Structures
1.
Amino acid sequence: MLGVVWYLVSNTLANLEARRIASGFAFLWREAGFEIGEAAFQRYSASDTYLKALAVGLANTFKASLIGIVLATVLGTAIGLFLVSRNRLLKTVSRAYVEFMRNVPLLVQLFFWYVTITEALPPPREALQPLPGVFLSNRGIFFPLPGSVPVLDGFNFSGGLAITPEFAALLIGLVTYTAGFIAEIVRAGVLSVPRGQFEAAYALGLTRRLAMRYVVLPQALRVIVPPMTSQYLNLIKNSSLAVAIGYPDLVSIANTTVNQTGQAIEGIAIIMAVYLTISLAVSALMNWYNARLK
Amino acid sequence: MNKVFSAVLALVIFFLAWKFIDWAFVHAVWQPDSKACRAASGACWGFIAEKHRFILFGTYPYEQHWRPALASVFLILLWFLSAWRIFWRWWLAVLWLAGLSVIAVLMWGGLFGLPYVENERWGGLILTLLLSTFGIALAFPLSILLALGRRSDMPVIQALCVGFIELVRGVPLISVLFMASVMLPLFLPAGVSIDKLLRAQLALIFFAAAYLAEVVRGGLQAIPRHQYEAADALGLTYWQKTGTVILPQALRIAVPPLVNTIIGFFKDTSLVAIIGLFDLLQTIKVSLTDPAWTGFGTEAYLFAALVYFLFCFAMSAYSRRLERVR
């Protein structure tokens, strides 16, 4: 075992030497020299360091994951409740949605949303306006903010809240895909509550909606939380597919860094360390929450 | 209230379905004619008609396309046969070995007058099917060892298995693929190189093994304690006990979740497109870069979704049936 490790390490050192690739993390403090399309919560320019660029990537990953988790939970829970509703049409439509989402690779869905946004939507000059002040164009989606309304300025909009096509595609893809899995978890959770609980709630005079809200869902949560945790973790890990559609998440920036510096081992180590930390932190948080539920 | 809601919902669905049918069928163009496509208001299925050879077979030599086509049919047939419980006999393994040998001869050639085709030129559907098949076939035995190791009494083995499983499950697949495509060449001695396809395949095997190991562990945990004790009382050794008493029962319990993991893995093989392998998704993506045919991405990815859906839906329907039968 040790011999094998030693053999691999010595090979690696010889290869790095032969290819004149530096090792160590000193590159983090050098100038990155590449622009990043969007930076969540901070300012970034090409003259900043690689460390700063990676921090921007991490912030972008967090932004996509957090918004994605919130929206996927809302959409997934709604569809999960539709799956157990008594309205047959609603049930059939939700079932079709879940089957489609779960049986098509996320990467295909991301590519689909990305080309649909960039090819099917009109250019900013002819942007669609579904609601006053909201514009859909192939350069992104624009929402009005209090005190700042998007206005056409040359070739693109300025002002308001702008969502780039890359972020929009990633978010729509992640949310609709994960919601399909969350819906099944919610359905299984509701079905795990014994029928008697519903009947007892009806006997007390509660309506179906109230029985669901105050009697069934709190009990279903115990079954729902553990698999939901792994869906949240999946969503965070899946946000790394951003690299395929050009959203500058951590993996995408680390990949650019590796291509520029050649320091593959360090770059991949950073990605893995960050995701492992996130995984462990989320599991710990959800274990704590789960323990509190019991 | 419920009736009003149903009526509104039915109207909305009807409207959307009508819009979709109008786009996808009524005003669609089916001939491979990009000018007609650009003039039409509907979908351009002519893109798929024009590019179907490249999408299905990648850069495989054109006049040899019957070989990957036949290989794909054989592979799908093998999977189909393996789905039936009555075929779960020892000779199924022999059948697989024979089938895979035939597929290897078909794909590589160099025998029986078939021209040799190096695996850099393999692509399209068969690549997706081969990556999934070998990924699962080689990951499965590895996953059993990992699951047994995780429950072992030997602390070093247990720590190694837990560490491997949790490490792989904690990071995204794309980082494992990057590792295989960029880092693996650094580990090898000078002059030795493994081609891109094999590197991606290795990454997929390790990735699948970690996930399958957790499913197998679930099966192992479902075996009652007295089964172990009874086997011990008979004086069986560890491997006899595991091989003849525990594993046959544990794997049987684990079949439905195993199928679900396999579906997830089949979908995940699409990620090799990111590291530039010509799988089904990558051939579609590359087809879209043809200047005459840019702008039909929606149709192209709907087609990709349909192909993946057919395979995955068949597998999920199978998994549901297994759960009902049990």
2.
Amino acid sequence: MTLTTAQIIGLDYDNHWKGDYDWATSFGWPPQWTNANFSGGSYAFVIPANWRVGSGPTNSMTGWNQTHNLSGNGTMSVTKFGHTVSRTIGNSYSGQ
Amino acid sequence: MKELTNAAGCLIILAALRCFGVEDTNVVALGDWSETVANQYGTSVRGRLLMCEYPDHRSTVARSDLGVFVELQEYSSSTGGQVHLYCDFTKDLKCNITDAIGRPPEPVGGGWTGGAPGPQWVTLPAFSSIRLRASAFAGGRLRDGSLGLWFAGAGNWTIKPSDTNHYFLSGTFTSVPGNNTNNFPHTEIWSGTLNLPKMKVPTNTR
């Protein structure tokens, strides 16, 4: 389920990630919510993290989780760093 | 005989040059060019889809990266100019994948996290082209043999290794000028829509 690959991400002068990070996407799930017995489910990406300066040694740091929750009514929510974005089956988005 | 020897020598030299000149990016799929689209001042652009595979030097583990790119080319009917266009693939690129009779791949549930190409101005000097990453920095060839064609806004598809259908990727890219903070001459700003012809997704990537 964890489908990204460990890559080095550059940091800006103010410690922000360079570029258009960080996307959190969930897609392609069959419509379990049409089954009356479906009450929801979830999965989580456990994302480890390391840091380094230039070509220096690699050091460990606390990672983070990205949680995907599919509710019984088909609303998909992705939570990361305390932020949650939800999409209904009608493609209505909320959160940030 | 001497001419033959010289010819053979040239071939060897050319072969050697080619070896040293080979780049490490492998174009594994290439679509046709779109129709050329001009702005009202005659500045023209065309585009096409392609897929490239290359060693991922940014990865912390040895792997190859397989991504979808959009190549844009300055293709005006007169020479001398350059063109500036705003590329926001998160909003203005829409892709579609179907097999020969128009069926999409079977949906495969999944997700991805990480980076993707962000919006930016692109400048094309005359006679020049640029190859822009379109797909997310995740995806490509997956560990289980699937092919992940994932985009930030243009769609997400995962093709299982057991899926033996041939699929075709097509797209539509619309350039909508952002804020012209660079003060580009308005005659050199291109906006419009390119219909990117379908490209066969290679089966040998799965």
